[in-house]
Amino acid sequence: MATEQLFVNVVIILVSARLLGEIFQRLKQPTLVGELLAGIIIGPSVFGLVKPDQSLSVLSDLAVFFLMFLAGLEMNPTEIRKAGKSAAVLSFVAFALPLISGTFVSSLFGLNIIQSLFIGLLLSITAVPVSAIVLMEFRILKTKIGNTVITAAVINDILSLVVLSIILQIIHHGGNVEINFSELGASGIRIASFIAGIFLVDILFRKTSNWLPDRIAPFFDKLQTKEAAFGILLITTILVSLIAQEIGLHFIIGTFFSGLIVYKEIIRKQNFERVYGIISAITFGFFAPIFFAIIGIEIKAESIANHVPLFVALLGVAILTKVGAGFVGARLIKFSREASFAVGFLMNARGMVELIIASIGFAEGIINLTMFSIAVVIGFVTTIMAPVMSRPFINNMKGSILIVDDHKKI
Using CA atoms, how far apart are residues 322 and 342, in angstroms rounded to an integer? Predict the structure, then answer.
């Protein structure tokens, strides 16, 4: 019965998401906006055809996995490293201002210091999966602006996980503001070691590119199992994701970095292109519409009806501080005015990562159902705003956007 219900839910989600996605595409708006609205319409807020449950959460996690893997495959580690310093500046500015402002405004509405800090954290997040799919849809992922935004979003998510670990340490000590700096330091070392290890693998691949592919590629040529290369890359990515999860990062960070270090020379160009085609088809044909529709399904509009002033205040802070900080950060790293506005709106997307952290806070008793619902609606609104508001600025500067020439990857 549970399996049948899951299949029914998937059919409803896909049909509605595809239909509204197509309508919005014809209206020259991003497909994901239609998919998000489809989730609201079929979810508890309107018709109640599909309700959030554990099976949808699993589907959503799988969707994030493939979205991040595809985003990693799209990008070049060399360009990520080049964008590193600029992205760090952008990420810090775009993280700190919403965190401080959100904490202050929440405290004005009577929330305690831990709840206020947690709400500030939710407002400071930039969702890597949402940013990645918006950049892919606009075909600017492999540009300077795309590399900078996605790298800043990854750094932003790492910062959010560090702050979350501090908050969880505090509540696990009975609410006393006590931080175990040795534990926090050890966690920071593990995270830094993981990211450094990923880039070390990339450097080693590039240093040995004149002989290593000739040693490894024949192994893939001898495989007789259909789509064996796809299976091997998928298993490797899952393992890297699990390692990332184990050391304190969210699995999506491991998935992204795993896709980042895949080279077509290693598995032969034809195998790489086939694997890329499979992952792209699975992601955009099945998982992407499900991912965005589920965000809409999660919204419970009635739970915030009695807290409209708080919702409006937090939404205003979320948008103004994130877009403003993104704009200022982009200007600091010498982006043009138009590009800076685009970056500000792209950094404003929250979506899945905010939902994950909000769910942790709700499960730990940090926030109640009302605050959780407010966080979900803010994530929904800012996710819609990211492609809609950034699109005019991106279109205006399309002629000056330089696509990264990537000889190692598609």
Answer: 12
Give the pLDDT score at 107. Answer: 93
Tell me the C-alpha distance between 49 and 371, whole Å.
24
Among the listed residues 386, 211, 374, the one whose alpha carbon sits nearest the alpha carbon of residue 300: 374
State the alpha helices, DSSP H only, in 208-336.
Answer: 212-222, 228-246, 251-260, 264-267, 269-282, 288-297, 308-332
**Residues contacting residue 366 through CB under 8 Å, at least 6 positions apart:** 114, 115, 118, 167, 171
* CA dihedral sign of residues 311, 312, 313, 318: positive
Residue 77: strand pairing partners: none
Please report, for residues 12, 33, 116, the alpha-carbon distance to residue 47 in angstroms, rounded to integers and kept in the order given: 12, 19, 33
Nearest to 343 by CA among 159, 163, 151: 151
Quote the pLDDT of residue 399. 55
**Model pLDDT, residue 162:** 74
pLDDT the model gives residue 49: 93
Segment 347-362, tens digit of pLDDT = 998 866 677 778 778 8
Give CA–CA dist 359/353, Å, rounded.
10
- The answer to whether the beta carbons of residues 347 and 390 sit under 8 Å apart is no
**Do 404 and 346 touch, CB atoms closer than 8 A?**
no
**CA atoms lying within 13 Å on the CB side of residue 379:** 36
Q: What percent of the chain has pLDDT over 70?
A: 85
In the three-class reduction of DSSP (H, G, I as helix; E, B as strand; rest coil), residue 379 is classed as helix
Give the 3-state secondary structure of residue 391: helix
Three-state secondary-structure class, residue 403: strand
Pair of tokens at residue 245: 């999860």
Q: Buried b vs exposed e over 258-272: b needs ≥16 C-beta within 10 Å?
A: bbbbbbbbbbbeebb
Q: Summarize pLDDT for 162-188 with one digit per residue, the tens.
A: 788 778 767 765 555 555 667 667 777
Residue 143 DSSP class: B
Other beta carbons within 10 angstroms of residue 360's beta carbon come to 15
> Minimal CA–CA distance to 159: which of 130, 188, 117?
188
Query: What is the set of domains in the chain, with CATH numbers?
Result: 61-286+306-400 (1.20.1530.20)
What is the CB neighbour count within 10 angstroms for residue 18?
17
The encoded tokens of residue 122 equal 């939710």
Identify which of 384, 206, 162 has the alpha carbon closest to the alpha carbon of residue 293: 384
Q: What is the pLDDT of residues 47-66, one digit of tens each?
A: 999 988 888 888 888 888 88
- Between CA 5 and CA 62 the distance in angstroms is 18
